[in-house]
Amino acid sequence: MGLPQVLEGIAAACRRAGRRPEEVRLVAVTKGRTPEEIREKVLAYGPFPLGESRVQEALKKMEVLQAEWHLVGPLQRNKAKFAPRFALIHSLDSLRLAEALERVGEREGVRLRVLLEVNLGREPQKHGFLEEELPEALERVREMPHLEVLGLMTVPPMGPEAVVRPIFRRLSQLADRYGLPERSMGMSEDFPWAVEEGATLVRVGRALFVD
Prior knowledge:
The chain is α/β, with parallel strands linked by helices. Helices cover 38% and strands 17% of the residues. α5 links the parallel β5 (112-117) and β6.
């Protein structure tokens, strides 16, 4: 594939759903990729946001690449101090992490932009709030003056369209219910379904780098 083909896939999915392509942002997931690969395969096409799963890997790349950085993987509380380096945290998955981030925001005098991760597939090995935990979690986090909740994020179970698409649809419904504009969902294998169901951020990695 490649970045131009991914962008065309997003545009095609938008056409099918009656949406405008500019409603969807591509977050290029650069986990395991070298700065040279990232420059060639992503940044050569424009200033796309870069997503990393691990804080330490992101910090090394920040030294050599100018970009808007997003954290798309789990954030350990002992690394919360690095959160201000990211334009957006996609993976706020517990109230304890929210409290740690609030302390960092207060100490640094910044407001951190976050998405709440929702475990809609109810998979025990995955992070995130269960759907029934979301109302209280949102209420609590919205009371924290140094956090700004922009939306929701999910990682669906592996499976066919009949399994994955309803997860994306449900995340959009929940975002609508709580007045949240951003929905981070969809990866290399399923981003067209996510776009058709309302994604505003798609986290694509492998498809950008595999020829």
